[in-house]
Design a protein that fits this description.
Number of domains of chain A: 4
Order of helices and strands of chain B: HEHHEEH
Structural class of chain A: alpha+beta
Oligomer: heterodimer
CATH topology of chain B: Arc Repressor Mutant, subunit A
Helix content of chain A: 40-55%
Shape of chain B: globular
Distance between the termini of chain A: 62 Å
CATH architecture of chain B: Orthogonal Bundle
Largest sheet of chain A: 6 strands, mixed, barrel
Largest sheet of chain B: 3 strands, antiparallel
Helix content of chain B: 40-55%
Chain lengths: ~900, ~110
C-alpha cells in the first residue's frame, strides 16, 4: 500500500521536473546558509565557516543526483533520454530515417492489407452468439462432388435424428426477390429461413419480432418478413412504425414483423441479406415448386447446425453418419450412398472446404506479401549495416567517454523501436488505404455483395506484431555489430575499412533480393498473361459488342403469361431500334451469379448404381440467342418462336453433354426429363459448341438450353442481351432511353457490357484481383530491389575509393576500374536471377490451377527476367561509372 | 571531523521520525543538527543521506512538508510527522527494541543458557 503510494508519487514526479529541481536547490542552499551561520556563531572566520560547512555537507551535485534517483524512476528517465537522443539523431539524418520508414511501410502495408482481406473472408466469425459452434454439413454421394444443398425432407430428418450432438439445425434458401413499396419494386436479396433460425443464432431483433418457430412449416402460409437493419435504414428511412406495414414480395402482400439487429448480414460471409422470410414462403418468387417442402429429390436449401456445448466436430460427424446411413437405406432413389461430412462454418466460405482452395489462395497471397516484407527487411538490414559502420566512431567515442556497452545497445534498440513504430504507423495507414480501396471495388453487379475488408482487432494485432518483429530486427542488427566492435581499433582506424565477411553478407542480400523480386514479378506476369488470355479467347462466345441488362416482369406482380408476352414484345421492339443487330433473352449470362441446374433422367444413359441422377446446369433462352452470343451450333437447328408451351418440348445440348451421356452416338432426337418438370420430355434438336458459363479454368461441364417459352415454372428472371452495331458503351444511354419508353416503370438492373459482366467472382474477377495484387506486390518488390542493388553497389564503390585512387595513381585506366566494380555486381545479380527462376518455377506449380497459361509459360519467364536483369544492371552501372570518375588525388587525400 | 561515521542505512528514517515527534515541525538543517547532537556528535549527517531519506518518508506518507520561515528569517522547508508516521515510528521503535534486546542477550558475557 505504502509502496504503491510511493511509486505513484515517483511517477508523478517525472513531470514538473524543473519545479522540483528548483525547490531542492533552494532547500539545500538554506541548509548550507544555516550551517554557515552556526559556524560563524561558533567563532569561525567567514571564509573558514563556509569551507567547513561545505566539507561537512558533502558534494551538492552527488546529493542532487541521489535525490533525483529517489524522486523519479531512473530507468524511465534513461528511456526518455534515449528516446530524445534517438529522435535527435533521426532528425539529423532525415534521408536515412525516411528511407528506413518508407522501406518498412512498403513491407508492412501490403501485408496488413492482405491480412485484412484474409481476415474478412476466412477468419472473422459470423455476427451471432458463440459463432465457433456453428458448423455446416455437406452431402457427399458416390461419383459426385461435394454438394452444399439439401432437400427439405432430408433436413427435417437430420434435425430430428441428430439432436444428441447438436443444439439444432437451421435451413435457409437464398433468393432474389422484388420488394414493392408504393408501386415501386426494388430487387432485394432475401433469405428464406426455418423458424428456429434466429433463436439458434442467438440474436435479438432491433425492432418487433423475428420469425416464429411455428412459421414456415407450410407452403405460402405465413406472409411475414423481417428486414435487415441496413435495408430498413436505407429503403424505409429507419421509420419506427415499420412493424405491421404491408409490402409486396414479387407482387404478393407480406407483413413486416421486425427488424434484425445492426451489423447482422445473414450467414454467408459474401452476401448482404436484406430481408428474411419463413422457408415455406420460398415458392412466392416462383423459384421453387410448391411441393419443394416434401420432395426429397429437390435439393435447394443449405443447412447450418449448432454444436451442443462439450461436443466436438468428430463426435458430431459420427452422430450424422448414423442418420446418413439410415437415409441412404430408406430413400435409395435420392440418398443412395449418402455421407454427411461436417465442417466448421468459416472453412466453407470459399466453396468446397476439402480442396483447400481458400487456404491455398490466402496462403499464396500471404506468401507473396511475406516475401515483400522479407525484401524490405533485407534492404533494411543492408541500410542499417552501412549506417552502423558510419556510426561506429560515434559509438566508440561515447564508450570511451564512459558509456557502458549495455547503455549503447539500449540506445540502438530504442532507435530501432522508434523507427519501427514510425514505419508501423505508416505501414498500417498504407494498408488501411489499400484495403478500403479493395472494399470499394466495383463488383459488376447490383446484387448486394459484401466486400468488407475493414480493420478490426485481429488486423491491428497482426500489424502490430509484425511491426514489433521488424523493430527488433531493425534494432538488434546494428546492436550486434556494436557489441562486436573493438574500441581502440575503431578509434585508431578511420572506421572506413570493410571486412570480407561484411561484403559477403551484402552480396548474399543482393542475391536474395533479386531472386525474391524475380519470383514475385513472374507470378504477377503469369496472372496478367492469364487474364489477357481469358479475355481474348477460350470462352466459346463473343463478348464484344454485347450489352446486358436484367429485369423481372413478375417483380411488379404480372403473371407468367403476361411476363413472357411482355418479354417477347420488348425483344421485338428492341430488334428494330437503331444500332441493334439482334436481341435475345436468357436466364443467366456467362459468369453471372445467377445459375440454375436440375437433376436429369436421360434416355439411353444408365447411371452407375448407387449414384444419384446427374445434375446439369441449363439456360432458358429465346430464339436469337446463339446468333447474338455468336455461339456455333455444330448440329441441328436453333429454337424458333414456334417452340412454345403448346408445342413439343425441345432442348439443345452442348458438346460436352453429348459426349458424356451419349458417347459416339447422334444426340439429335434423343430425349431427357428434368426432375422439376416430370410431365414433359425434352427432345434434343441441336448441339452447341462448348461455352464457359462458370469459371474459366476447369474443364467445361455438360450444359443444355431450353426455350424460355417452354420453361417449367413461374420464374421470369430475364437477362436481355443485345448485340450492337456500334460501341456498346456509347449505346447504353440510348438503350436506357428506349427501355424507358417501351417499358415504363419496369425496374432494370445490371445494365453493362458483356465484357464488364465477365468480371465476377465465378468469372474473371479472381484473375483481375490476382493480377492486380501480384503486380502491386511485384512493383514494390522491384522498387526495393533497385534501391537495394544500387545501395550495396554504391556503398561497395565508396568503400573502395582509396583502393581505386591507388590503382589509378599506379596507372589503371577508368574502364578497368568500371569493370572491376561492375563484375562483382553482375555476378551477384546473375546468381540472384537463377535463384529467382527456380523459386518462380516452384511457386508457379502451386498456383497452376488458377492459371490459364501453363505454369512454365516461356514468354512470361523470359520477358520478366530480361526486364529485371536490365534494371539491376543499371543499378550496378551507375555506381561503377561514378567510381570510374574518381580523381586519384582526391581519393588518396580522402582521409 | 571526517572520521565520524555516516548514519547506517535504515536507521536514519527512525531517527528522523523520532526527532520530528519530540521537536515538532522542523527544517532539514534542524533535523540534521538534532540528530548530531542527540548522538553526542558521534554521527554526521550530510545532504546526500538526509534529503533522499526525507523524500522517501514523504513519498511513503509518513511525513509532510511545507515552506515556512525560520527563527532567523530564512526561507526553509518544514517537515512534520503525519498520523501514519506516528504509527510507523511506534512500530519501528518496537522492532528496534526487540532487535537490540536480542543482540544484547547474545553479547552480554555473564549469562549462559543452561
Amino acid at each position: 500500500m505504502r509502496r504503491m503510494r510511493a511509486w505513484c508519487m515517483r511517477f508523478a514526479a517525472l513531470f514538473r521536473k524543473e519545479h522540483h529541481d528548483r525547490e531542492l536547490a533552494e532547500e539545500l542552499e538554506s541548509h548550507l546558509q544555516m550551517r554557515i551561520e552556526d559556524n560563524l556563531r561558533a567563532g569561525m572566520e567567514p571564509e573558514e565557516a563556509r569551507r567547513q560547512a561545505l566539507i561537512k555537507l558533502g558534494g551538492i551535485d552527488q546529493a542532487k543526483e541521489k535525490y533525483r534517483d529517489r524522486r523519479g524512476i531512473p530507468l524511465f528517465d534513461a528511456l526518455l533520454q534515449d528516446v530524445r537522443y534517438g529522435l535527435r539523431i533521426l532528425r539529423k539524418n532525415p534521408g536515412f530515417a525516411s528511407v528506413v520508414i518508407l522501406t518498412l511501410a512498403l513491407g508492412i502495408g501490403p501485408n496488413t492489407a492482405i491480412f485484412s482481406m484474409v481476415n474478412s473472408m476466412l477468419l472473422r466469425p459470423l455476427p451471432v452468439a458463440d459463432p465457433t459452434r456453428i458448423v455446416e454439413p455437406f452431402i457427399q454421394q458416390r461419383g459426385s462432388s461435394l454438394q452444399q444443398e439439401f432437400s427439405v425432407p432430408d433436413y427435417r430428418d437430420i434435425e430430428s435424428e441428430s439432436s444428441d450432438a447438436f443444439s439444432g439445425f437451421m435451413a435457409q434458401r437464398e433468393l432474389v426477390d422484388g420488394l414493392g413499396l408504393n408501386g415501386k419494386a426494388e430487387r432485394v436479396m432475401d433469405l428464406y429461413v426455418t423458424g428456429n433460425f434466429f433463436s439458434l443464432l442467438g440474436i435479438k431483433p432491433a425492432l418487433g419480432r423475428f420469425i416464429l418457430p411455428s412459421e414456415g412449416e407450410r407452403v405460402l402460409a405465413d406472409p411475414v418478413m423481417v428486414l435487415s437493419y441496413s435495408y430498413w435504414k436505407t429503403r424505409f428511412g429507419g421509420e419506427l412504425d415499420i412493424v405491421g406495414k404491408i409490402v409486396s414480395i414479387d407482387g404478393q402482400p407480406v407483413t413486416v414483423v421486425g427488424v434484425a439487429p445492426e451489423g447482422f448480414f445473414g450467414v454467408s460471409a459474401w452476401a448482404n441479406i436484406q430481408g428474411y422470410l419463413p422457408l415455406g414462403m420460398a415458392p412466392i418468387s416462383g423459384a421453387d415448386p410448391n411441393d419443394f417442402m416434401t420432395d426429397r429429390g429437390y435439393r435447394a436449401v443449405t443447412i447450418l447446425g449448432r454444436l451442443r456445448p462439450g461436443t466436438n466436430l468428430r463426435q458430431a460427424e459420427a452422430s450424422l453418419t448414423v442418420t446418413a446411413e439410415r437415409l441412404s437405406k430408406d430413400h435409395a432413389t435420392e440418398d443412395a450412398g449418402l455421407r454427411l461430412p461436417l465442417f466448421p462454418e468459416p472453412s466453407t466460405r470459399l466453396g468446397d472446404p476439402r480442396t483447400g482452395t481458400p487456404l491455398l489462395v490466402s496462403g499464396l497471397f500471404f506468401g507473396l506479401a511475406a516475401l515483400v516484407l522479407l525484401l524490405a527487411c533485407m534492404n533494411l538490414a543492408n541500410i542499417l549495416m552501412m549506417h552502423a559502420t558510419v556510426r561506429q566512431r560515434e559509438m566508440a567515442v561515447r564508450s570511451a567517454l564512459g558509456a557502458g556497452r549495455g547503455r549503447l545497445i539500449r540506445q540502438l534498440l530504442t532507435e530501432g523501436a522508434l523507427l519501427a513504430l514510425a514505419s508501423g504507423f505508416a505501414g498500417i495507414t498504407l494498408g488501411w488505404l489499400a484495403s478500403s480501396a479493395a472494399s470499394s471495388v466495383h463488383v459488376e453487379t447490383d446484387l448486394p455483395l459484401r466486400l468488407d475488408f475493414s480493420f478490426d482487432w485481429r488486423v491491428l494485432t497482426y500489424a502490430l506484431v509484425s511491426t514489433l518483429i521488424v523493430g527488433v530486427i531493425v534494432g538488434v542488427a546494428p546492436a550486434i555489430q556494436v557489441s562486436r566492435g573493438n574500441l581502440s581499433s575503431i578509434l585508431h582506424e578511420s572506421g572506413r575499412s570493410t571486412t570480407g565477411s561484411g561484403e559477403r553478407v551484402r552480396s548474399a542480400l543482393v542475391v536474395a533480393q533479386v531472386g525474391g523480386s524475380l519470383m514475385l514479378l513472374i507470378v504477377a506476369g503469369l496472372f496478367t498473361h492469364s487474364l489477357s488470355q481469358a479475355e481474348r479467347s477460350n470462352l466459346g462466345f463473343d463478348p464484344n459488342y454485347v450489352i446486358n441488362f436484367t429485369m423481372d416482369p413478375l417483380l411488379t406482380g404480372s403473371h407468367r403469361s403476361q411476363g413472357t408476352s411482355y418479354i417477347k414484345n420488348l425483344l421485338d421492339r428492341l430488334r428494330v431500334s437503331p444500332g441493334v443487330v439482334s436481341a435475345t433473352t436468357a436466364f443467366s449470362a456467362p459468369m453471372s451469379y445467377m445459375t440454375i441446374g436440375d437433376a436429369l433422367t436421360i434416355s439411353g444413359y444408365e447411371r452407375p448404381s448407387g449414384q444419384p441422377p446427374p445434375r446439369v446446369r441449363y439456360n432458358m433462352i429465346s430464339s436469337d440467342y446463339f446468333e447474338t452470343m455468336r455461339i456455333v451450333l455444330t448440329k441441328g437447328r436453333s429454337f424458333t418462336d414456334a417452340d412454345d408451351d403448346s408445342a413439343d418440348h425441345v432442348a439443345i445440348v452442348n458438346e460436352a453433354f453429348a459426349k458424356r451421356y451419349w458417347p459416339g452416338q447422334d444426340p439429335i432426337g434423343r430425349t431427357f426429363k428434368m426432375a422439376s418438370d416430370p410431365q414433359h420430355t425434352a427432345r434434343v434438336i441441336g448441339v452447341a459448341a462448348d461455352v464457359r458459363y462458370q469459371d474459366v479454368t476447369s474443364p467445361i461441364d455438360p450444359y443444355f438450353y431450353v426455350p424460355f417459352l417452354q420453361r417449367a415454372w413461374d420464374d421470369s428472371w430475364e437477362t436481355v442481351q443485345i448485340r450492337t452495331a456500334r460501341s456498346p458503351e456509347t449505346m447504353i444511354p440510348e438503350l436506357e432511353h428506349v427501355l424507358a419508353s417501351i417499358a415504363p416503370g419496369q425496374p432494370v438492373w445490371d445494365v453493362q457490357t458483356m465484357n464488364q459482366a465477365l468480371y465476377t467472382l465465378p468469372g474473371l474477377l479472381i484473375f483481375q484481383a490476382g493480377a492486380g495484387l501480384a503486380a502491386f506486390l511485384g512493383a514494390i518488390g522491384l522498387i526495393l530491389t533497385i534501391v537495394g542493388v544500387y545501395g550495396v553497389n554504391s556503398y561497395a564503390a565508396s568503400q573502395k575509393t582509396r583502393e581505386i585512387g591507388i590503382r589509378m595513381a599506379l596507372g589503371a585506366r577508368p574502364a578497368e576500374i568500371r569493370k572491376m566494380i561492375l563484375r562483382r555486381g553482375i555476378l551477384t545479380v546473375c546468381i540472384g536471377l537463377i535463384v529467382g527462376l527456380a523459386a518462380a518455377f516452384a511457386a508457379a506449380r502451386v498456383i497452376g490451377r488458377f492459371l490459364i497459361v501453363p505454369p512454365t509459360d516461356p514468354p512470361t519467364y523470359l520477358i520478366v527476367s530480361v526486364v529485371l536483369a536490365l534494371v539491376a544492371l543499371v543499378a550496378c552501372y551507375i555506381p561503377a561509372r561514378r567510381a570510374m570518375r574518381v580523381d586519384p588525388m582526391v581519393a588518396l587525400r580522402h582521409e | 571531523m571526517g572520521e565520524k561515521p555516516d548514519v547506517w542505512q535504515g536507521t536514519l528514517s527512525v531517527m528522523v521520525l523520532k526527532t520530528l515527534e519530540t521537536m515538532g515541525p522542523l527544517h532539514g538543517y534542524g533535523i540534521a543538527r538534532r540528530i548530531e547532537q542527540t548522538s553526542g556528535n558521534l554521527l554526521s549527517v550530510n545532504y546526500g543521506t538526509l534529503y533522499p531519506s526525507l523524500l522517501k518518508l514523504e513519498q511513503e506518507g509518513y511525513i509532510a512538508s511545507e515552506w515556512g520561515v525560520s527563527d532567523n528569517n530564512r526561507k526553509a522547508k518544514y517537515y512534520r510527522l503525519t498520523q501514519a508516521g506516528r504509527k510507523q515510528l511506534k512500530r519501528e521503535a518496537r522492532e528496534w527494541e526487540q532487535a537490540t534486546s536480542i543482540l544484547a542477550r547474545f553479547l552480554s558475557p555473564g549469562e549462559k543458557s543452561s
